[in-house]
Amino acid sequence: MIPQLSKNEIKFPNPSDANEDGIVAWGGDLNPSRLIYAYQSGIFPWYSKGDPIIWWSTNPRLIMELEDFKISNSLKKSIKKFNYKFDSNFLQVIRNCRDISRGDQNGTWIQNDIIAAYSELYYMGVAHSVESYQDNKLVGGLYGVVVGKIFCGESMFSLVSDASKSAYTILIKHLKKWGYDFIDCQVPTEHLKSLGAKEVSREYFLNRLKKVNMDNIEHLWKIDKNLIK
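User: That's the sequence. What structure does it adopt?
Assistant: C-alpha coordinates below.
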Protein backbone atom coordinates (compact mmCIF):
# COMPACT_ATOMS: atom_id res chain seq x y z
CA MET A 1 0.00 0.00 0.00
CA ILE A 2 1.31 3.46 -0.92
CA PRO A 3 1.65 5.66 2.21
CA GLN A 4 -0.55 8.74 2.51
CA LEU A 5 1.07 11.94 3.78
CA SER A 6 -0.45 14.10 6.46
CA LYS A 7 -0.85 17.83 5.87
CA ASN A 8 0.04 18.43 9.51
CA GLU A 9 3.51 16.88 9.43
CA ILE A 10 6.29 17.37 6.90
CA LYS A 11 7.91 13.97 6.49
CA PHE A 12 8.34 11.35 3.78
CA PRO A 13 8.91 7.60 3.75
CA ASN A 14 12.38 6.45 2.74
CA PRO A 15 12.59 6.99 -1.07
CA SER A 16 14.41 3.65 -1.32
CA ASP A 17 11.10 2.05 -0.33
CA ALA A 18 9.24 3.45 -3.36
CA ASN A 19 7.13 0.93 -5.24
CA GLU A 20 8.20 -0.57 -8.57
CA ASP A 21 6.80 2.45 -10.44
CA GLY A 22 8.82 4.86 -8.30
CA ILE A 23 5.94 6.20 -6.18
CA VAL A 24 6.98 7.09 -2.63
CA ALA A 25 3.72 8.47 -1.24
CA TRP A 26 0.60 10.45 -2.05
CA GLY A 27 -1.29 13.35 -0.47
CA GLY A 28 0.04 16.10 1.72
CA ASP A 29 0.37 19.54 0.17
CA LEU A 30 2.74 21.77 -1.80
CA ASN A 31 3.90 23.80 1.18
CA PRO A 32 7.32 25.31 0.33
CA SER A 33 8.95 23.58 3.31
CA ARG A 34 7.58 20.23 2.15
CA LEU A 35 8.75 20.81 -1.43
CA ILE A 36 12.25 21.76 -0.33
CA TYR A 37 12.45 18.75 1.98
CA ALA A 38 11.23 16.52 -0.85
CA TYR A 39 13.95 17.68 -3.25
CA GLN A 40 16.58 17.35 -0.53
CA SER A 41 15.39 13.75 -0.11
CA GLY A 42 15.44 12.90 -3.84
CA ILE A 43 11.65 13.08 -4.17
CA PHE A 44 9.54 15.22 -6.52
CA PRO A 45 5.77 15.76 -7.14
CA TRP A 46 4.20 14.70 -10.43
CA TYR A 47 0.47 14.19 -10.96
CA SER A 48 -2.40 14.90 -13.34
CA LYS A 49 -5.33 17.26 -12.96
CA GLY A 50 -7.94 15.88 -10.60
CA ASP A 51 -5.52 13.41 -8.99
CA PRO A 52 -4.04 13.69 -5.51
CA ILE A 53 -0.43 14.85 -5.22
CA ILE A 54 1.85 11.91 -6.04
CA TRP A 55 5.46 11.92 -4.82
CA TRP A 56 8.11 10.06 -6.83
CA SER A 57 11.65 8.80 -6.61
CA THR A 58 12.14 7.04 -9.92
CA ASN A 59 14.38 4.07 -10.64
CA PRO A 60 16.24 4.52 -12.91
CA ARG A 61 16.84 8.24 -12.47
CA LEU A 62 18.03 10.45 -15.32
CA ILE A 63 20.90 12.84 -14.62
CA MET A 64 23.08 15.10 -16.74
CA GLU A 65 26.73 15.18 -15.79
CA LEU A 66 27.79 18.68 -16.82
CA GLU A 67 30.83 17.40 -18.70
CA ASP A 68 28.68 14.91 -20.66
CA PHE A 69 26.45 17.52 -22.30
CA LYS A 70 26.58 17.18 -26.08
CA ILE A 71 26.40 20.37 -28.10
CA SER A 72 26.05 19.88 -31.84
CA ASN A 73 27.44 22.23 -34.46
CA SER A 74 23.92 23.36 -35.34
CA LEU A 75 23.19 24.16 -31.69
CA LYS A 76 26.41 26.15 -31.45
CA LYS A 77 25.06 28.31 -34.29
CA SER A 78 21.59 28.55 -32.73
CA ILE A 79 22.94 29.86 -29.43
CA LYS A 80 24.04 33.05 -31.19
CA LYS A 81 20.46 33.75 -32.31
CA PHE A 82 19.19 34.51 -28.81
CA ASN A 83 19.75 36.78 -25.85
CA TYR A 84 19.48 35.25 -22.37
CA LYS A 85 18.31 36.20 -18.91
CA PHE A 86 18.12 34.45 -15.56
CA ASP A 87 15.10 34.81 -13.24
CA SER A 88 13.69 37.72 -15.22
CA ASN A 89 10.29 36.25 -16.15
CA PHE A 90 9.83 33.10 -14.07
CA LEU A 91 6.03 33.20 -14.01
CA GLN A 92 5.73 33.43 -17.79
CA VAL A 93 8.26 30.63 -18.23
CA ILE A 94 6.30 28.22 -16.05
CA ARG A 95 3.02 29.29 -17.69
CA ASN A 96 4.49 28.65 -21.13
CA CYS A 97 5.75 25.25 -19.97
CA ARG A 98 2.11 24.54 -19.11
CA ASP A 99 0.54 25.99 -22.25
CA ILE A 100 2.90 25.09 -25.11
CA SER A 101 1.89 21.70 -26.49
CA ARG A 102 4.47 18.98 -27.10
CA GLY A 103 4.09 16.24 -29.66
CA ASP A 104 5.14 13.51 -27.22
CA GLN A 105 2.83 14.55 -24.39
CA ASN A 106 -0.91 14.40 -23.88
CA GLY A 107 -1.76 17.40 -21.72
CA THR A 108 0.34 18.84 -18.92
CA TRP A 109 0.99 18.10 -15.24
CA ILE A 110 1.64 21.80 -14.49
CA GLN A 111 -1.61 22.83 -12.83
CA ASN A 112 -2.42 26.14 -11.13
CA ASP A 113 -1.38 24.79 -7.73
CA ILE A 114 2.02 23.81 -9.15
CA ILE A 115 2.47 27.29 -10.64
CA ALA A 116 1.57 28.92 -7.31
CA ALA A 117 3.87 26.64 -5.31
CA TYR A 118 6.92 26.97 -7.55
CA SER A 119 6.41 30.71 -7.90
CA GLU A 120 6.67 30.90 -4.11
CA LEU A 121 9.91 28.90 -4.29
CA TYR A 122 11.12 31.39 -6.89
CA TYR A 123 10.45 34.33 -4.57
CA MET A 124 12.34 32.43 -1.86
CA GLY A 125 15.36 32.10 -4.19
CA VAL A 126 15.05 28.31 -4.48
CA ALA A 127 13.44 27.98 -7.94
CA HIS A 128 14.99 29.63 -11.00
CA SER A 129 14.42 30.21 -14.71
CA VAL A 130 16.68 30.54 -17.73
CA GLU A 131 15.12 32.45 -20.62
CA SER A 132 15.83 32.87 -24.35
CA TYR A 133 14.77 36.08 -26.12
CA GLN A 134 14.53 37.24 -29.72
CA ASP A 135 13.70 40.89 -30.43
CA ASN A 136 12.95 41.29 -26.70
CA LYS A 137 10.32 38.54 -26.89
CA LEU A 138 10.48 35.47 -24.65
CA VAL A 139 10.73 32.53 -27.06
CA GLY A 140 12.07 29.68 -24.93
CA GLY A 141 13.30 28.69 -21.52
CA LEU A 142 13.25 26.33 -18.59
CA TYR A 143 12.83 26.32 -14.83
CA GLY A 144 13.96 24.19 -11.94
CA VAL A 145 14.91 23.97 -8.28
CA VAL A 146 18.35 24.30 -6.69
CA VAL A 147 19.40 21.76 -4.05
CA GLY A 148 22.97 22.34 -2.89
CA LYS A 149 25.16 21.77 -5.95
CA ILE A 150 22.36 20.18 -7.97
CA PHE A 151 19.93 21.86 -10.37
CA CYS A 152 16.69 19.86 -10.50
CA GLY A 153 15.18 20.53 -13.92
CA GLU A 154 11.39 20.65 -14.06
CA SER A 155 10.22 21.67 -17.53
CA MET A 156 11.11 23.65 -20.64
CA PHE A 157 9.32 25.23 -23.58
CA SER A 158 10.21 26.55 -27.01
CA LEU A 159 8.37 28.86 -29.41
CA VAL A 160 11.33 28.97 -31.82
CA SER A 161 13.55 26.11 -32.92
CA ASP A 162 16.39 25.44 -30.44
CA ALA A 163 15.26 28.19 -28.03
CA SER A 164 14.94 25.83 -25.07
CA LYS A 165 18.05 23.79 -25.94
CA SER A 166 20.02 27.03 -26.20
CA ALA A 167 18.79 28.09 -22.75
CA TYR A 168 19.79 24.66 -21.45
CA THR A 169 23.26 25.13 -22.92
CA ILE A 170 23.62 28.50 -21.19
CA LEU A 171 22.45 26.92 -17.93
CA ILE A 172 25.08 24.19 -18.12
CA LYS A 173 27.87 26.64 -18.90
CA HIS A 174 26.98 28.70 -15.84
CA LEU A 175 26.55 25.69 -13.57
CA LYS A 176 30.09 24.70 -14.53
CA LYS A 177 31.30 28.23 -13.85
CA TRP A 178 29.68 28.23 -10.40
CA GLY A 179 30.91 24.77 -9.40
CA TYR A 180 27.66 22.81 -9.52
CA ASP A 181 27.72 19.01 -9.64
CA PHE A 182 25.03 17.79 -12.07
CA ILE A 183 21.44 18.28 -13.28
CA ASP A 184 18.68 16.02 -12.01
CA CYS A 185 16.54 15.31 -15.07
CA GLN A 186 14.21 13.05 -13.05
CA VAL A 187 12.35 10.90 -15.60
CA PRO A 188 14.24 9.34 -18.54
CA THR A 189 13.43 10.83 -21.96
CA GLU A 190 15.04 10.15 -25.33
CA HIS A 191 15.42 13.89 -25.95
CA LEU A 192 17.59 14.46 -22.88
CA LYS A 193 19.50 11.24 -23.50
CA SER A 194 20.39 12.57 -26.96
CA LEU A 195 21.96 15.58 -25.24
CA GLY A 196 24.12 13.39 -23.02
CA ALA A 197 21.95 12.56 -20.00
CA LYS A 198 22.31 9.07 -18.56
CA GLU A 199 20.23 6.69 -16.48
CA VAL A 200 21.51 5.78 -13.02
CA SER A 201 20.05 3.68 -10.24
CA ARG A 202 18.01 5.29 -7.48
CA GLU A 203 20.62 4.15 -4.98
CA TYR A 204 23.41 5.85 -6.91
CA PHE A 205 21.39 9.06 -7.24
CA LEU A 206 20.51 9.19 -3.53
CA ASN A 207 24.14 8.61 -2.57
CA ARG A 208 25.25 11.47 -4.84
CA LEU A 209 22.52 13.65 -3.37
CA LYS A 210 23.70 13.02 0.19
CA LYS A 211 27.19 14.23 -0.70
CA VAL A 212 26.02 17.62 -1.98
CA ASN A 213 23.10 18.41 0.35
CA MET A 214 25.29 19.86 3.08
CA ASP A 215 27.29 22.00 0.67
CA ASN A 216 24.70 24.64 -0.15
CA ILE A 217 25.87 27.18 -2.74
CA GLU A 218 22.53 28.69 -3.72
CA HIS A 219 24.06 32.16 -3.33
CA LEU A 220 26.11 31.52 -6.49
CA TRP A 221 22.91 31.55 -8.53
CA LYS A 222 22.58 35.17 -9.48
CA ILE A 223 21.58 37.45 -12.28
CA ASP A 224 24.84 37.52 -14.22
CA LYS A 225 25.27 40.55 -16.49
CA ASN A 226 28.01 38.73 -18.36
CA LEU A 227 26.05 35.73 -19.60
CA ILE A 228 28.18 33.19 -21.45
CA LYS A 229 27.31 32.43 -25.07
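The first helix runs from residue 32 to 40.
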